[in-house]
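Supplementary Methods S3. Input chains for the assembly prediction are listed below.
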Amino acid sequence: MNAAPTSPRPGPIVRGVLRLYPHRWRARYGAEMADLVATAPLSISLVIDLIAGAIDAHLQPHLVASSMSVAQEREGEMVGKLMKLSCAGYGANVTRRDVWLSAAVMLGGTVVFTLIWMRLHIVGGDNPYVDSFAVVPFLAAYILSLPFTYLKGRRRTTQLVFVIGSLALVIIGALAVGFITARM
Amino acid sequence: MAKRDTQDAELDDFGRFGEPALLILISLADGPKHGYAMTDDIADIAEVRFGPGTLYGAIARLESRGLIQRLDAEDRRNPYRLTALGEKALRARLASIQAIARIGQRRLATA
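Predicted structure tokens for the full assembly:
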């Protein structure tokens, strides 16, 4: 096997992009990916590759769950596997239909919210508060898609609290950015 | 048309990860490797260097199908090895590619 050089820690931009991957994905591949990334020079293509990978990882959450299942099966841990499958709130019980619904909400929501934001931009002109909402459409759409994947199987109240709370945080963050920009 | 083997179909719905997945299987054919070694080996074989997002997207797909298996970590790096199923799928895909290449070359020769 080829010897790999001792890798330094990835830079802050790459570490930030790696955080976009789902928790389960990071738990399984995060350390290896960070190692690989640390040895590659920072470039736009690297960041795009990682972002595309993160989107794919969110759209295909079953990949990590089934990878773990295959490994466990090989080790003969069938009981543990069944327990994990029945307890997993995310991954094992997310169907292909859920993944498509989640993608549709994410993409459709991003388009709709972006159109609303563009309309506000036309009406409001160069307003720092409107500008600060530029990244909100994707984030809001992403949060709204979570009940089909991460939050699937959770209680309705939990889903509502998580979605509304996250949306509120995003909006507060955008307003704070707008406030700071307006004062500069 | 060349007849498709059922093992060959294992890599059919990998989408944009089809080529990386095939190259990973080829890379692992001569022994286990971790991600870094795979990237270097694939760069030598095919003169293409996959980004970590693409590489691990393909690895996750191969692992979920049982075509490769993760071994115990060497420090922070987990090597992967080809499984028996992965070896069958690789043989079938390479045979299919060879059959297509032969047809193409025959047609070019008679053109």
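The CA atoms of residues 22 and 90 of chain B lie 7 Å apart. The interface with chain A takes residues 31-37, 39-41, 50-57, 59-61, 63-66, 69-70, 76-79 of chain B (CB under 8 Å).
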